[in-house]
Amino acid sequence: MDLDKALTISARGMDAQSSRLVVIAQNLANQDTTGSTPGAKPYQRKTVTFANTMDTSIGVPTVSVKEAGVDESDFPLKYDPSNPAANAQGYVQTPNVNSFVEVMDMREAQRSYNANVSVMEVTRGMLTRTIEMLK
Amino acid sequence: MTPLTPTIPTITVTPQAASDAYQSADQSALGGTDVTGFSATLQRAVQSAIQTGQSADAQSMKAIAGGGNITDVVTAVSKAELTLEAAMAIRDKMVSAYQDIMRMAI
Q: What are the backbone angles phi and psi of residue A81, rounded to the nearest 5°?
């Protein structure tokens, strides 16, 4: 039934946004993680992309995580000679994580999740109203 | 229309199927002789409702044990709840139809 499918699609949407939040949490938690040997690479920002894939169990496409990639942008340099990852000049490569970008991503994930929850609530309401016609 | 076959585990009582089931039950009740049709329809509807309930139960148990996906639990429980509601509505209709027949003056 179509409304049943809508319930499943919303649930998959919520799953996708949860995976996104996992990546954001990793990025925010590691925003100060540097390497442990001189000149070593710091934590590299992770990214997540989504795909519209066919769900054979219900016969409609649903959203799923396409791939968890990494951000290839440059690592900012910071002068910190006491850090074990500092190079000969005393500079340390810091993660390419921008906390403002992550927080905005987090807000977006939250809004998308809530939108899916709203769709689920409306679907449930429609189903309940239909069943009430039998009473 | 979704066929109400008890061998397919994912089948739920859809409102469409519910009204069809009620109609066929109503017709067989009006026929008066086809008792198997009436009870078989009822049994099939109840069977699929039970299966939906069991899947919700399994998901909830997983969630209580600390595993499982919370969105899967919400969907399974929602479906079970709606199926039960539909099943109860159909049952009430069927019983009242049956009582109408029984009250008929011969």
A: -60, -25
Angle between helices A99-132 and B70-102 (to 10 degrees): 10
Domain residue spans of chain B: 49-106
Q: Please tell me which of the candidates A7, A14, A57 has its beta carbon nearest to residue B79.
A: A7
β-strand pairing of A77-79 with A60-70: unpaired
- Residues from chain A contacting residue B10 (CB–CB below 8 Å): 57
- The answer to whether B91 and B39 are in contact (CB under 8 A) is no
Task: Tell me the ipTM for this assembly.
Answer: 0.72
Domain carrying residue A64: 3-132
Supply B28's token pair. 């067989």
Q: Do A134 and B10 touch (CB under 8 A)?
A: no
pTM exceeds 0.80: no
Q: How many domains does chain A have?
A: 1
Q: pLDDT tens across B27-69, in order?
A: 555 444 445 677 787 787 788 888 888 888 888 888 888 877 8
**CA separation, residue A90 to residues A32, A37, A75 (Å):** 17, 13, 15
**How many Cβ atoms are within 10 Å of A106's Cβ, its own excluded?**
16
